[in-house]
Each structure stands twice: as structure tokens, then as C-alpha cells.
Design the sequence.
């Protein structure tokens, strides 16, 4: 049975570079026989949490996440920070959707940055949802110049493509190893519902 990977494009802009990178990575995963779904927070914005979830995109997103074996979480870097849309997403997403599922973090930068949002997400997004960010990560720098065509435009474009393929292979190995783990963990003790 093929793995189901959900990619979360964390930009609040429609037609963002982050969404472009998510589409590229989804296509690469599909070439490895994985099923993919993209949650594009620029096209399907969540209201600022807390909000009535019945009247927005959250119920459909929650179902996609519950069915995922692993995730790819992509954040643009805005002023050295993770995007507000992605931080808001992690207020909605809890252990029912994400607990003990491996995730690859991907930073997206129009310049030479991209690392700070990944550090921020590793530090502040996992506690209650229990998402398992794998040690490997990917940073797509100078994003406007890469991943635009079928063929790499130059050496920098080729390097990020090779690194992306390797990082996705690592994610798939984690997904296979941890498949079914969320269902094997007993959540019946309420005092352990939140992380420490």
C-alpha cells in the first residue's frame, strides 16, 4: 500500500513560491509511488484561531491530515520568522491529526535565508500536536530562480533538486518505519493529553 503524504504550503499568499515548491515536491513524491495532497494556506486560509471551525476549511483539512502517513511542512521566511498562516495552522492541528507522524520541514527564501523559520517551528509547534519533525530539513534559497522548469536552469537549481530528492527519500523511510504508530498509542489517560 502506498504512503499518503500531505504537504502544507504555509504562505498566506495565493500563487506563492512556497506553493510552487510544494507542487514540485508533490510531483517528486508521486514518482516514488506516494499519494500526495497539498494544503495551500494561501488559497484556503484558516480564520485566526480560535474561531468556529464549522464554517471554514478546517474540517476538510483535518480529514486530510488524519489520513496522512507523513507530512512536508513548508514555511516562507518573513522577517526571519515562520509565516503567520502556518503558526495559526498549528493552533488548529492537534494530536488527532498529527501525533507521531514524521514531517520534513522545508524553508523557502527569496534570498539566502530560510533557516530561522525551521528553528522556530521545531521549538514551538510540536508540543501538543506531537508531530515528529525528522532531523533532516530542506531550505530552498533564491526560490524564484529554482524549480521552475522540468530541467534544472543551472548548478544551483540542480543541487537543490538532488538535495530535495534525498530529503524526500529520508522522509519516506521514516513514514514506512512509523506507519501505524499513532493508532498503537493509548490516549485514554487525560492527564497526558498535552505535551510537557
Sequence:
Amino acid at each position: 500500500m502506498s504512503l499518503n503524504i500531505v504537504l502544507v504550503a504555509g504562505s498566506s499568499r495565493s500563487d506563492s513560491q512556497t506553493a510552487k515548491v510544494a507542487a514540485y515536491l508533490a510531483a517528486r513524491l508521486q514518482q516514488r509511488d506516494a499519494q500526495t495532497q497539498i494544503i495551500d494556506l494561501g488559497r484556503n486560509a484558516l480564520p485566526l484561531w480560535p474561531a468556529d471551525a464549522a464554517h471554514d476549511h478546517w474540517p476538510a483539512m483535518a480529514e486530510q491530515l488524519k489520513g496522512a502517513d507523513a507530512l512536508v511542512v513548508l514555511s516562507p521566511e518573513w522577517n526571519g520568522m515562520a509565516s503567520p498562516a502556518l503558526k495559526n495552522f498549528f493552533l488548529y492541528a492537534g494530536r488527532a491529526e498529527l501525533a507521531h507522524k514524521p514531517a520534513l520541514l522545508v524553508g523557502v527564501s527569496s534570498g539566502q535565508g530560510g533557516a530561522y523559520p525551521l528553528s522556530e517551528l521545531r521549538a514551538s509547534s510540536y508540543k501538543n500536536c506531537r508531530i515528529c519533525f525528522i532531523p533532516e530539513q530542506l531550505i530552498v534559497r533564491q526560490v524564484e530562480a529554482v524549480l521552475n522548469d522540468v530541467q534544472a536552469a543551472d548548478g544551483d537549481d540542480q543541487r537543490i533538486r538532488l538535495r530535495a530528492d534525498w530529503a524526500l527519500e529520508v522522509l519516506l523511510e521514516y513514514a514506512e518505519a512509523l506507519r501505524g504508530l499513532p493508532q498503537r498509542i493509548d490516549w485514554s489517560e487525560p492527564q497526558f493529553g498535552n505535551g510537557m
Observations:
- The chain has a mean pLDDT of 95.
- Residues 27 and 36 are 8 Å apart (CA to CA).
- The helical segments are 17-30, 58-66, 84-92, 95-98, 116-124, 155-178, 181-184.
